[in-house]
Design brief:
This protein is an alpha/beta fold. It has a domain at 9-124. It has helices spanning 36-53, 104-107, 156-166, and strands at residues 9-14, 19-23, 30-31, 77-80, 90-94, 111-113, 122-123, 131-132, 137-139, 145-148, 172-173. A 6-stranded mixed sheet has the order 6-1-2-4-5-7, with helices on one face. Strands 9-10-11 form a 3-stranded mixed sheet, covered by helices on one side. The chain starts with 8 loop residues before the first strand and ends in a 5-residue tail after the last strand. The relative contact order is 0.19.
């Protein structure tokens, strides 16, 4: 899987051609089709292309940290992952007035979302694509069902029981024996 970088940005394109930036923060799930070794470089290229396509100065300084909020005026939907103990859905932070559209050569490298970002206030990658996360537990859309991240089954019972102890009765945990 490669090393987990807790603050990376990844991009997706929806069925209307709109672009969304997803800030993974500490433990947001990420589609498996994204190569962790290339994620930072590709994010910088897409980031610069979005800014350039909308007449803004593209920032490519490798020392600068990418900030998804900088893309809001460029017409990009921005989703944030909040939380450090489970892979919860990303929450939409912005809705652009005029959504950005990029050339097909660039969007072909992005994750494809069959829905519309305009219709989704939250988005859980694990419900749409084979995905990975640095934790074993993920929260389904709707906010009360906890499931196991595929490939993390060994750690799931420990993490799920910690959630039960910390938040008694708040979550329904699937796949955890008594």
């Amino acid at each position: 899987m490669g090393e987990w970088n807790e603050d990376f940005i990844w991009f997706a394109v929806d069925r209307d051609g709109c672009i969304a930036a997803f800030l993974a923060n500490e433990c947001g799930a990420v589609p498996d089709c994204l190569d962790p070794a290339r994620l930072e470089r590709e994010a910088r290229e897409i980031y610069a292309a979005v800014r350039e396509a909308t007449g803004e100065e593209p920032e490519l300084d490798p020392e600068l940290e990418l900030d998804a909020e900088d893309l809001i005026p460029s017409g990009v939907y921005v989703y944030w992952h909040e939380g450090a103990w489970l892979a919860s859905p990303y929450e939409r932070n912005s809705v652009p007035e005029s959504p950005a559209r990029l050339p097909a050569a660039l969007t072909a490298r992005m994750v494809r979302f069959d829905g519309r970002f305009a219709d989704r206030a939250e988005l859980q990658p694990l419900e749409h694509w084979p995905s990975r996360a640095p934790v074993a537990v993920w929260l389904a859309s709707g906010g009360n069902t906890v499931r196991c991240v595929a490939g993390r089954e060994a750690a799931f019972p420990v993490e799920a029981r910690a959630i039960e102890r910390e938040f008694p009765g708040e979550y329904r945990i699937e796949g955890l024996g008594s």
